[in-house]
Design brief:
The structure holds two protein chains of two kinds. Chain A is mostly helical. Helices cover 75% and strands 0% of the residues of chain A. By secondary structure, chain B is mainly alpha-helical. The interface between A and B is large, with 42 and 49 residues.
Chain lengths: 276, 315
């Protein structure tokens, strides 16, 4: 594990990505203590305060400190995306591995159906689900998880197909182990590496999807300092204060870049051909 | 490419649409809203509600309701909007037409910008132009499209006043109005696409430039222009077709946001309106039509790809 981390940090993408992720993690855990001001404190004299030494990213339409809102807002954005990806990955990995284990006609049927579900654009599926379940962060997380599961099932299955023919799986089958033992104890642990890489990259999409849902008014609700919601609120005032809109957009972009970089770095670090 | 292969692809489109119809119907059935209450309002008498439920078949078992719905959809009847009282089908297809115009313009714009940019980056590999392009495309992919949309609208519509910020004008009404209203949303939609495709074109061009037949063409003494355009470009563009097909899927999703921001009455906006007003028939029709469009474009791209690449044979 430490070996892997070392290799990850030695790749340039991995090093930059990990640095960004550490910063994000700090903001998520300790946001309210790091933020220089109260993110919800309204100050009408400070409306559209420009960027400066005292208020790094200026003030928004209610005079709230944008930097503080961004730092505290990490908490209402990033963990949601992580949770959605985690749920979607676990569900997808179980479906994909089971499908590969079953094989034959059943496998074919499951995968055809998954292909068909993937014909629904992710945002559309998430919108439909949130429309059904009701607005809010929790429902947005479920919706994104459901939208991710088919793609993860596809990736997992392609790996699991190779694992299925390994001797240890054949041995388990010969021992007369049950289906769930073979799927959960023999196959799943051995498909994890590529699945984790894929999931890391997907977090970037999840951040984007979650922010988009919030932007459309279906995810996080005001006055939460969620980044997508901040962009939506800043839109009306973009003439007076473009930075109020740019700052949260950049935060989303940097988060997406961070997870992408770490995913790429992991791919290089886990690829045996790159070992020296 | 054989007849059997085409038949198989068509069958998979039908299967896809069937699965999507089950999915869409299933999700919308869970909607907590009672369609009868939505239609008649909160103060309707129980008798009136019961009559409407009877008429809409809301008391039938789910599978029967589903079969009825699929039967009607197959004959082209998508039901009546609960919001406007108008038939949903014609409205949704008109909206789809506007969305497709937007999507096709975005793709055209993307090709015009991304292909030369990607090739230029490959030709200047490692130098400033290349690094700048890479950085720009990285940011273009990661920057959320609603942020891009709001910023472009601010710059081009509010500050410079070059383009109208929102709305849609039919081409029959005013040709210049049509294009000026289309420009901003198409530009926004193409930003992510350009960012995506530039990287693709760059790496493909690099691969091709290092290949033997390019070296052969140069050794033959062909002018550099002909080497690049006649030999390199053609081969580098092939994978781009696939990416464009995948991007159509992205576009159909991303278009929801863009149509919402620029107030374009396309299918994404219709769907958003339907979802917020819990207009069941419109949600079902919109989602089904969107997913079906995606499935069809994907298959068309596959077919186009096999036509272009003579090495691929599906039997």
């Amino acid at each position: 594990m430490t070996d892997l981390l070392g290799r990850l940090l030695r790749t340039p993408q991995g090093a930059i990505g990990c640095t960004l992720l550490v910063l994000l993690a700090v903001a998520c855990v300790a946001g309210p203590w790091i933020a220089p001001y109260d993110p919800e404190a309204i100050d009408f004299l400070g409306r559209f305060r420009p960027m400066g030494a005292q208020y790094w990213l200026g003030g928004d339409q209610l005079g709230r400190d944008v930097f503080s809102r961004l730092v505290v807002g990490a908490r209402s954005t990033v963990p949601m995306a992580l949770a959605a990806t985690l749920i979607g990955t676990v569900v997808g990995a179980v479906i994909g591995t089971t499908s590969a284990h079953l094989g034959g006609r059943l496998d074919e049927m499951i995968m055809r159906t998954i292909d068909a579900v993937m014909a629904v654009p992710g945002l559309l599926l998430a919108l439909l689900l949130v429309g059904t379940l009701g607005n809010g962060s929790g429902n947005a997380v479920i919706a994104i998880a459901v939208a991710f599961a088919p793609g993860m099932a596809r990736v997992t299955r392609s790996v699991a197909l190779a694992v299925r023919n390994q001797d240890y799986v054949k041995a388990a089958v010969a021992r007369g182990e049950g289906g769930s033992w073979i799927v959960f104890r023999e196959m799943l642990p051995n498909v994890m590496a590529p699945v984790v890489i894929e999931a890391t990259i997907r977090v970037a999409f999840a951040v984007m999807l979650f922010a988009t849902l919030s932007f459309l008014g279906l995810g996080a609700q005001p006055p939460a300092p969620e980044w997508g919601l901040m962009v939506a609120e800043a839109r009306q005032y973009v003439h007076q204060a473009p930075w109020v809109l740019i700052a949260p957009s950049l935060a989303i972009a940097l988060t997406a870049i961070a997870f992408n970089l770490v995913g790429d770095g992991l791919r290089d670090a886990l690829n045996p051909r790159h070992e020296r | 490419m054989s007849f059997g292969w085409l038949l198989g692809r068509s069958a998979s489109i039908v299967y896809t649409i069937l699965v999507v119809s089950v999915l869409v119907f299933g999700i919308t059935q869970v909607l907590p809203a009672d369609a009868a209450v939505t239609l008649l309002g909160e103060n309707a008498t129980p008798e009136a509600l019961a009559a409407v439920r009877q008429r809409l078949g809301l008391d039938d078992p789910y599978w029967l309701q589903y079969l009825h719905w699929v039967g009607r959809v197959a004959s082209g009847d998508f039901g009546t909007s609960m919001r406007t009282g108008q038939p949903v089908g014609p409205e949704m297809f008109a909206a789809l037409g506007r969305s497709l115009i937007l999507a096709v313009s975005a793709i055209a714009l993307m090709l015009v910008v991304a292909v030369p940019l990607g090739m230029a980056a490959a030709l200047h590999q490692g130098r400033f132009a290349d690094t700048a392009t890479s950085f720009g495309s990285f940011l273009g992919i990661a920057f959320p499209e609603f942020g891009t949309a709001a910023l472009l609208a601010f710059l081009l519509a509010d500050e410079l006043q070059w383009l109208p910020a929102t709305g849609w004008v039919a081409i029959g009404e005013s040709v210049s109005g049509f294009f000026s209203h289309l420009a901003l949303p198409a530009l926004t939609a193409s930003v992510v696409l350009v960012a995506h495709v530039v990287r693709m074109v760059r790496s493909e061009t690099l691969d091709v430039l290092h290949s033997d037949y390019i070296r052969a063409a140069r050794l033959k003494g062909l002018p550099e222009r002909r080497v690049l355009v006649g030999h390199a470009l053609r081969n580098a563009l092939l994978p781009v077709v696939t990416i464009v097909a995948l991007d159509v899927g992205y576009l159909l999703g991303g278009i929801i946001v863009i149509e919402e921001i620029f107030a374009i009455p396309g299918i994404g906006r219709q769907l958003m309106v339907a979802i917020t007003s819990r207009d069941l028939p419109s949600i079902q029709a919109g989602a089904l039509i969107m997913a079906a469009t995606y499935a069809v474009t994907n298959t068309l791209a596959d077919v186009a790809y096999t036509f272009l690449d003579k090495r691929i044979r599906y039997d």
